[in-house]
Amino acid sequence: MRRLTCVWLAGALLLSACATLPPQVSVDEALKLSRDGVSADAIIAMMRESRSSYQLTASDIVRLSKQGLPDPVLDYMQQTQLDEVRKQERMNDWASRPPVFWHAWIRWR
To answer: Which of 14, 38, 47, 59 could share a disulfide with 33, CB 3.0–4.6 Å?
Structure first.
């Protein structure tokens, strides 16, 4: 009984640690951090840690660049959008595949 309690407690702690992500870094926050003198690498690290994803248009990128957001940060933000599109494409490809057992049935028929 004691061992089961320890295993349950360890699992609960592990799950709670996985579920806590820092809040996403908004575009306005990134711009404010940049204006406050935070380095591009530090802003990108905060974005990566919070798993922030951005949907920027070309005009958004131009506007943010003119407002002083560093190019590496803009490049990272655009990359998150591309990664999100690729992830969605993989999910759609996976969903359109027939079930695995169907392939096995055809092969052994």
So the answer is: 38
Under DSSP, is residue 25 helix (H, G, I), strand (E, B) or coil? coil
pLDDT at position 91 is 83
The one-letter amino acid at 52: S
Q: What is the pLDDT of residues 37-70, one digit of tens each?
A: 999 999 999 999 999 999 999 999 999 999 999 9
- Exposed, middle or buried by CB within 10 Å (0-12, 13-18, 19+), for 13? exposed
Nearest CA among 44, 105, 33, 92 for reference residue 72: 44
Among residues 80, 79, 73, the alpha carbon closest in space to that of 38 is found at 73
Q: CA end-to-end span of the chain, whole Å?
A: 50
Distance CA 86, CA 77 (A): 15
Token reading at 54: 């951005």
Identity of the amino acid at 16: S
